[in-house]
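Repro:
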Amino acid sequence: MTPPPARRRRTGTNGAAPAHNLPRRGAVRRAQAITTYGVGSLIAVDHESFIVSGLDEAEQSWSRDESPRIHERRLARLLDIDYFRLPPASDDTSRDGLRVRRFPLMHSCPECNDLQRHRDFNPPAGRSVCGTCEVDLVPSRFVVACEAGHLGEFPYWQWVHRSKDRGGSPTAQCGGKLKLRTSGHTSSLRSILVSCTCGQAPEVSMEGSFRRNALKDLGLKCRGARPWLGASAPLQECGLLLRTLQRGSSAVWQPVLKSALSIPPWSDGRADPLAEHWDALREYDERDHVEIYLKGVFKGKCPVPLDEVMALLEAEREEDPDGEAAPTFDHRYRALRNKEYERLRAGNDESEHNRDEQFVCETPLGDQSVLDPLGVTGPMLVKRLREVRALKAFTRLVDAESTTDSKEMPLSEHPLRWLPAMEVRGEGVFLRLDEDRLDAWERAPAVAARIERMRTAHQRVLEERAEDPSRVTPSPATPRMVLLHTLAHVLINEWSLEAGYPAASLRERLYAADDMAGVLVYTATSDSAGSLGGLVAQGEPEILDRTVRSAVHRAEWCSSDPLCVETEASGTGGSNLAACHACVMLPETSCEHNNILLDRALLVGTPDDPDLGFFAKLLTR
């Protein structure tokens, strides 16, 4: 049952609603608390709307039983924290749950058409209905946000009382009551009408409210509201341009997710008891000093042998990126991927470890030479893996894939030594492309020209979304990256058809750089879909040979051809070429890059240039 809202009392300088647990009828899975309904996001439950509270409250409300700690040292070090915590599951068996606040506070009554704050309707305790009409209240469809991550109520009063000339802006309240109604003539914003009973301003529609400068013309700028942190959070100095958004728009909240695979020597869990002490241990170079520290902390009973501690410290120092005294976050994240790539290539036999080992990667027994005509090499059977995905921050109006730290909104007002995360245990198949053949293909002028079109379009999108285009992260589009990305998509589609895996239960992990050319396809869900060896069996050379050939032949034709293969631009801002939902696009849970930077022509060629494709020799035209 929904807790009673605040009635006839002020809730703070920024009008934030009090926090309470998410209603039981709005259950949220643990994975959704990271990817869909994380801190600062909006949740629609029946006819009500809530915003997920910050981690400051989670620190006090999440119980250790329902929100246990999990460890992944490499990722924790990258994010400068000590550990992670699983979000509590919001279901009927949970005593805990996500803390939420009602947002937006502005509601309308479809019966009397009043438009005002929720508490001003005097709803009965535990219900969201008009106290006079006794009909369900409707949360405001519109909110405002800025690129710094702040979120606020749409300024209905200023919109109604705006001056006839664009430069004017209202400054004083009129004493009237706002009304909202729909004319029903069309489904556009023109049919949503807002008025005021003061009679000083005519009834206006919401048409034009989504213009980039619509609120700037009213003299409004962002005041730095953070309703997910509650009334005690002070307003931040901001002043950025405010944009009007639909409450359910994906631009309202995008998670900044960072992930890592558990690889040796951290994958057996033996180092977990030392999780909160690594920063201190790294200050010591001498074995004797490390021993003295451990004896002092654990009173002579360290759970990890000293030799293993020294080996772990050495392994950690090896992951430090070379060439920079103070490496950037992106550089360190690439170094983390590099180590995963090296370990996937080298393998980790199950026979050499105990049952607690979380990373088992072995060479298939079949003859790998059958893959040589494909340009595929080095397949590995990842029989056991563990991935930790952490919610680092979130963005609004800015693409989370290419954001900078200045555009990321932290999850708490005060720095915390942990972040919410989920862990996935499953299996996968890793493969690489032949470097010599790949280098020759990348140097082809037609390939370079095609990639340059995609890169230019993607870079333009990034710059249009940024306040300062000169500081935008360069687009990651390269021939190698787009080829591996598209190959991963067609493999996932093929395995979903041939091996019985739902496409949404598989996920890609790309290793595309000057010194990397690999892709890992693995089970992406936290349930049992595809975790009993079925995916690993697809990595045997004979089966993989048939799979790649079938996937390439299937990608040769799309039901949207010739429009799809001959398109000059598709996808967000033209960042795709020959790619659509009928051929290579995947569910959002499966793709690392939100279904952009895809082009199946790089796999199979085009009718005008069949040799453009990396796998063109496999096709008979």
